[in-house]
Amino acid sequence: MESILKKKKISETPFRINVLEIINSSNTAVAMSHIENNLDKYNRITLYRTLKTFTKKGIIHPIQIAGKEIMYAMCEDSCGAEHQHNHLHLECKKCKTVSCVDVAENMMPNLSAYQIDSFEVYAKGICTTCKSA
């Protein structure tokens, strides 16, 4: 975790390392409540500022699905403040997890007539873990 913070030029505090470890330890997106429940002692303002910094620096990205609490997932190493992701967010109907799933670049709709600053795709189905169980 320290190397991720160093690479993005963020001070390595025990709290930041702990938050990053919680998010990174999951193969799926992590709900805000999960992060809060896995922290020993914390200040809510410090947590929000930490998540905002991680998002701004391209370490994590927020996932907001209508009717659900905000979730966070790790970004690719090459991600920056612009969050150039080629993936969709899949919510599993069985286990209720949300995963980042890579998609082919040609899935991007032709939006050349518009200025697109970000693009998100949401899918609902069965994740690979539940499908193979």
Care to describe what's here?
The protein is an alpha+beta fold and 133 residues long. The chain has a single domain (2-132), classed as Orthogonal Bundle (Arc Repressor Mutant, subunit A). 31% of the residues lie in helices and 19% in strands. The strands form two sheets. A three-stranded antiparallel beta sheet has the order 1-3-2. A three-stranded mixed beta sheet has the order 5-4-6, with no helix packed on it. A hairpin with a 5-residue loop joins strand 4 and strand 5 (98-102). The termini are far apart. The model has no long low-confidence stretch (mean pLDDT 87).
Which features does this protein show?
single chain; 133 residues; alpha+beta; Arc Repressor Mutant, subunit A; three-stranded antiparallel sheet; three-stranded mixed sheet; 5 helices; 6 strands; globular
Summarize the structure.
This protein is an alpha+beta fold and 133 residues long. Helix content is 31%, strand content 19%. It has a single domain, classed as Arc Repressor Mutant, subunit A.
- Summed up, the domain count is 1
Sequence of secondary-structure elements = HHEHHEEEEEH
Q: Which percent range describes the beta-strand content? A: 15-25%
In which range does the helix fraction lie? 25-40%
Mean of all residue-level pLDDT scores: 87
What is the name of the CATH topology? Arc Repressor Mutant, subunit A
CATH homologous superfamily? Winged helix-like DNA-binding domain superfamily/Winged helix DNA-binding domain
Termini, distance in Å? 32 Å
Overall 3D form: globular
